[in-house]
Amino acid sequence: MRADVIIIGGGQQDAALATRLLEAGKKVLLIFEGRKSEDRSREEFRAKGGSLLAGDKVCRVDWAEDGSRVEAIYTEGLEDTALRAEAYVLCSGRFFIRGLLSEEDRVWEPVFGVDVKYLKDSSRWCDPDFFAPQPFDSFGVIPSEDCKALKDGKEVENLYVTGDILCDGIDNTEELCKRII
Amino acid sequence: MKEFDVIIIGAGITGAGTARDCALRGLKTLLIERADIADGASGRNHGLLHSGARYAVGDPESACECIKENMILRKVASNCVEATDGLFISLPEDGLEYRDKFLKKCAEAGIHTQTLSPQKALSLEPLVNPELISAVKVPDASVDPFRLVSANVLDARLHGAEVLTQQEVTEIIKEDGRVKGLKVLDKSSGTVNTYYAHYIVNAAGIWGAKIAEMAGVHIGMLPAKGSLLVFDHRVTRMVINRCRKPANADILVPGDVVSVLGTTSDKVPFEQCDDMKVTKEEVDLLLREGCKLVPSLAQTRIIRAYAGVRPLVASDDDPSGRNVSRGIVLLDHLKRDGVDGFISITGGKLTSYRLMAEMTADLLCSKLAIKAKCHTADTPLPGSEKSVKFSSVVRKAREMKMDTSVIEAAVSRHGSQVEAMDFSGKGSELVCECEKVCRAEIAYAVKVLGVKTLDDLRRRTRVGMGPCQSSYCVEKAAKALAEELGDTSLSEELKKDYLQHRWKGIVPVCRAEQLAQAEYLRNKYGK
Amino acid sequence: MQENNLTDFQQCLKCNICTEVCPMMEVNPDYPGPKQAGPDGERYRLKDPAFFDKSIKYCLNCKRCEVACPSGVKVGDIITRAKLRYAHPEHQLRNFALSSTDLVGGLASTFAPVANPVLGLPLTRQVMDSVVGVSSKANMPSYAEKRFEKWFSSIEETQSRYEKKVNYFHGCYVNYNYPELGQDFVKLMNACGYGVRLLDKQKCCGVAMIANGFVQQAKKAARTNLASIEKAEGPVLTTSSSCTLTLREEYEGILGQDCSAAKEKVCLAVKWLYDRIDRGEIRLAFKKGLKIKAVYHTPCHMQRMGTQFYTIELLKLIPGLELSVLEQKCCGIAGTFGFKKENYELSQKIGASLFEDIRASKAQMVITDCETCKWQIEGGTGMKVYNPITLLASVIE
C-alpha cells in the first residue's frame, strides 16, 4: 500500500495533523492504538476520506541498508502487507499511550528506536511535589531542525517527528507542515 | 477535672491493643495519637502474622511467643487475618543444613511444619523459584494491620475508652517527681489541652524515646528503617520465605489483593523518622533478592514503595539492627528510673501485640490494685464475632441490584460489622473501583471509625490503594468524604492532600507501568 | 519488560475508555463494564474465586474495549477466560443447540425442505421461545437444501484445471445456510486464476462454543481444524471475520492451543486478494456502467483484527460504487447472544444506533464481512446485506 504520508499516531493532535495534510491534497494513512475520550477528530478524518488503522500498532520497520531512510512499515493487524509512504510522521504520544516506554534508568521510543532525551538516573525522574512540574515531563524524542527523527544523532531522511512525544514540550507543527505539504 | 486511670500515648497496634485490654478490664482509659491510627510502624510493615518459624533458630523465645499469638489472633481477629500459610524455600545456595536445624527448632517452639518436595511446592505455588531444593510449610498468615488496629480502637471505644487523634503531646506533667498527666496540642484547632491520669503508658513506637525524655527518663532506641514494595496483584497464595538466616528482602506476603515484598534494615537518624523516602538502592536490592523467591517479580508491576521504622531498643552494638532481640520490652520506670506513674511498652512485633498489651495491662492493674483478668485471648474483636457467609451476602447484593463482589469486598474488610452498613440508595454506589469500595462502606467508616481525611479513609477501607493509586477515584472519594463529613467545601483540599500522599509512594517506583500511571495522574489532577 | 504479556491486566491504568466504548454498558445498567469485569475483577478473582460475579455474562466479546485501550490490555480475553473458568453454565440445552452449528446445521439442512417452512412458522418459533429460550423475534437464517460441501464436490473436478490453488475454510454459515457465498468465492478465485480446494476435514470454528462455555467441545473442534490446516498446502482463505479471529487468535488466547499453523496459513480472502493486487500479481476487471450506492459496516471482530482495511480498499477499486464507511458500532447480535430470548431486547437496543445510521444513509445495500451481523442488520433494517466477496464476484468481468 502506498500513501503520501503515513502518520504513526496515538499522540494528541494526530488526527488534526492528518486532516490538515489530507485537506492539502495528500493521501494520508493514520495508524493509532487506543481511543481518546470524547475525541471526534479521528472520526472526522475518516469521514473526510482519510484511511484509518484504529487499534493497530506498528510492529516492524524496514530500514534502508545504511539506516538513512524508512523503506516500509508493518502493523500487527495487517501483518505482511507493506505500508509505504513518501513521508512517515511519528506522532505516537507519551508514556500513557506507550509512545515512550521506560524501565529502570532507561526511556526509549519503541517503534523506530529514534533518539530520546531523558535522565539516565531514574531517581531524578520525579519531583516530590505532585503539583510541581516533573522532570519526566520534558523527556521525549529529539527532533532535528528539519523536524526529522534522529538515530544516534543522524537525521532520518523520510521520518518526521512531532506532537507531544517531543522533548521539552517542543511544538514544531507549523515547520513540519511547511516541509511536508 | 477529669482523671483517667490510664492515658496511653500512641495509637499503633501496641497502644490500641493496650487501650482495648484496659477498657475491657474496666479501666478509665484515654488513648492519645499525634496523627491517625496506625501511622507509624503499625501502618508500614509487612502485614505478616508470623508463625514464628523465622525466629525459631535465632530467637526461640520470640518464636514461641509468635506461634501462640498467631493461633490466638486467627480466632479473635479472624476478620483481619487470612490463614494463607507460608513456605520456607531453600535454594541450592542455602543448602539443607539450615533447613534441618530450622525444622528441629520449629518443633521445639511448638510450630507445626510440613516438609514438601519441590514438585509439590511448585504445584501449590507455580511462580516460586523453580530451582528450590526444598520447601517447608508453616502456619504463617497474612494480616491487615490497619484493620487490626482499627478493630482494637473500636472495641476500646465500645467499652468506654476515649480516643483522640491529631493530638501531639507537648509536655509530660510531673509533680514531686511523679508523672501526673500531659499536655497535648490539638492539631486541628491549635488549642492546648491538659489531661490527668494515674498512669501514663508510653506506646509511641520509635517516638517513645522523645516521650520518655519528656518524662525525664532515657530509653536508648535504634531507629531501623525497613523499606517494602507493593506489587499490583496477588502473585502467590502463601507467604514465601527463604529458609536461611534472616536477611534482606526474603519475605513475599500476599495482602488482600496485592503482594508485599520486604524488607531492608538500615540505621537512620531520628530526624528522618518523620519523613522517610525509599531510595533507588533499596528498590534495586528488594527486586534483586525478591526475584530469588519468585522470578516473575521482575515482570510484575510495582505500584508503590514505602518505609517504616522499627522501634528497636538498643541492647547491643549490632549495626544492622536485625539481630537485636525483638523481645518485648516493658519498662516500669519507677523500678528502672525512680519515676512513678510512667510505663513504657516497646520492642516486640505486630504478631505479639496482644501479649504486650496483656503484660502492660497486668502491670497497670497490679499498680492500681485492681483485680481484673485479661480476656483479650478469647474475646473476638468487632467484625470477628461471627463469620459472615458469602452466600447470604450474595443474596443481599442481588436484592440491592449490586455487584456481589462489592459487598463481598466489604465483608472481607469488616466482617460482621458489614451489618452496620446501609447499602440502600446512594450506599450501593461504587467509589473506588480498584478496591471495590462503595459509598456505604465510606459512610460507615466516617460514622463509626473516626475518619477525617482520605488517608484516614484509606487505612480503614483501602480506597486508593490499588494499581491506579486513586487516579480513578480520588475526586469521587473526596466528594463522598466531604459529604459524609457534612462540609462539601472540604472536597478540594481532601483531594489535593491525598494526591500528595499517594505521590510519595509512587516516586521511588516511577518507571514502566507506574510512570505511565503517574503521567495519567498528573494530566488529570496535577496541572 | 513492558512489551510482553499484552493480555496482561497489569497494564491497565484505569482510564476507563473501554467502559466508554462498551456497547453493553450503554443499554444495560446491570453490567459493570469491561474494566470492572476484566482487569479490576481479575485482581479479586485471584484472591478468591468467590469474587466472580455473574453479571460478566453480559460481555458480548465484541472486543471494542481492546481496540480502544491505550495500554494494550486484552480486556475481552480476560473476561472470556474468567467466564470459562468460573461461570456456572445456565440454559445448557439451548446454548448447546445454538453453539453446535455442525450438529444442528447438519440435521436442518438434511431436512431443509421441511425444516425451513417449519422453522418459519410462528408456532414453532413460539415453542422454541418458551421451551428452549430461542427468541421468537430474532431473525433466523434459513437452511440451504444443498450444503456447500455437497455442491463443491459436484464441481470439484473443474478446479483441477487451475495450476495455482488456494484452500477454503468455508465455516458453517456458508455450509448450511448460505452456500451462495461459497460459490461466489470459488467464482472470484477462479476469475483470478486460482483453483479452490477444501480442507480434509473441517468443523465449526467453535466461536459459539467458546462464548457459551463449552470448552471441551471447542478444543475438540480446534484440534480437528488445526490438524487439517497443518496438512493443507498453500494458504487457507476465509470469508468470515469471526472464524478468522477464532482460528488465528482465540484458539491460543482462550483455549491455550498452539495455533501457529493457523496464524501462518489462515488468511481472510479480502487480505489475500488485496495483497496480490497491491503487488501487481492479480488485476481485476470490472463490469462497465456500474452504479451502486452502498455502506460498509465494520464487524467488531474485523475491527479488532484491523483487517477492515482490506475490504474497504478493495471496495474502493470498484468503479461506479459510491461507498460510505459507517462509523464503527456494534450491531448487537454478538454471535449467539442476540438469539437468546433473555437477550433479544438488549441486542436490539445495542444495534439501534447502527440501524439508524444505515437507514439515514439511503444506501441500496450494506456490505459486511460477518454473517451474524448480516442477519442482525437484515432483521433490524430490512436492507439487503452482502459479503464483500459476493459483491466482488458479481461486479467482475
The CATH topology of the largest domain in chain B is FAD/NAD(P)-binding domain
What structural class should be given to the helix and strand makeup of chain B? alpha+beta
* Straight-line N-to-C gap of chain B: 51 Å
User: What is Rg of chain B?
Assistant: 23 Å
Content of β-strand of chain C: 5-15%
Q: Which CATH class of the domain at 286-395 in chain C?
A: Alpha Beta
Write out the strand line-up for the largest beta sheet of chain C, numbering strands in chain order. Answer: 2-1-3-4
Helix content of chain B: 25-40%
Question: What is the overall number of helices of chain C?
Answer: 22
Major sheet size, sense and barrel closure of chain C: 4 strands, parallel
User: Mean pLDDT across all residues of chain C, rounded?
Assistant: 90
Number of domains of chain B: 3
Overall geometry of chain C comes to globular
Can you offer a commentary on this structure?
The complex is a heterotrimer of chains A (181), B (527) and C (397). Chain A has 181 residues and is of the alpha/beta class. Chain A is 14% helix and 31% strand. Chain A is built from 3 helices and 12 strands. Chain A has helices at residues 14-23, 41-47, 173-180; strands spanning 2-8, 28-32, 51-54, 58-63, 70-75, 84-90, 101-103, 106-108, 116-117, 140-141, 148-151, 154-161. A 6-stranded mixed beta sheet of chain A has the order 3-2-1-6-12-11, with helices on one face. In chain A, helix 1 packs parallel to helix 2 (41-47). The longest helix of chain A has 10 residues, at 14-23. Chain B is an alpha+beta fold. Chain B has 3 domains: 2-40 and 146-220 and 326-368, 3-Layer(bba) Sandwich (FAD/NAD(P)-binding domain); 80-142 and 223-307, D-Amino Acid Oxidase, Chain A, domain 2, CATH 3.30.9.10; 391-525, no CATH class. Chain B is built from 17 helices and 22 strands. Chain B has helices spanning 13-24, 53-56, 60-76, 97-109, 118-124, 145-158, 208-214, 280-293, 333-337, 353-368, 390-399, 404-414, 439-449, 454-461, 474-485, 491-506, 512-526; strands at 3-9, 29-32, 48-49, 81-82, 86-90, 114-116, 134-138, 141-143, 162-164, 167-175, 178-186, 192-202, 221-231, 239-242, 251-255, 258-262, 266-267, 302-313, 328-332, 342-347, 430-432, 437-438. In chain B, the strands form 4 sheets. In chain B, strands 5, 6, 7, 13, 14, 15, 16, 17 and 18 form a 9-stranded mixed beta sheet that branches. In chain B, strands 1, 2, 9, 10, 11, 12, 19 and 20 form an 8-stranded mixed beta sheet that branches. A 3-stranded antiparallel beta sheet of chain B has the order 3-8-4. Chain B is globular and about 65 Å long. With 397 residues, chain C is of the alpha/beta class. Among the domains of chain C are: 6-86, Orthogonal Bundle (Fumarate Reductase Iron-sulfur Protein, Chain B, domain 2), CATH 1.10.1060.10; 286-395, Rossmann fold (3-Layer(aba) Sandwich). Helices cover 54% and strands 8% of the residues of chain C. Chain C is built from 22 helices and 8 strands. In chain C, the strands form 2 sheets. In chain C, strands 2-1-3-4 form a 4-stranded parallel beta sheet, with helices on both faces. In chain C, strands 6-5-7-8 form a 4-stranded parallel beta sheet, with helices on both faces. In chain C, strand 7 (365-367), helix 21 (371-381) and strand 8 (384-386) form a beta-alpha-beta unit. In chain C, helix 7 (101-110) runs parallel beside helix 11 (171-177). Chain C is globular. Chain C starts with 16 loop residues before the first helix and ends with a helix. The chains are: A alpha/beta (181), B alpha+beta (527), C alpha/beta (397). At the B-C interface, helix 12 and helix 17 of B face helix 3 of C.
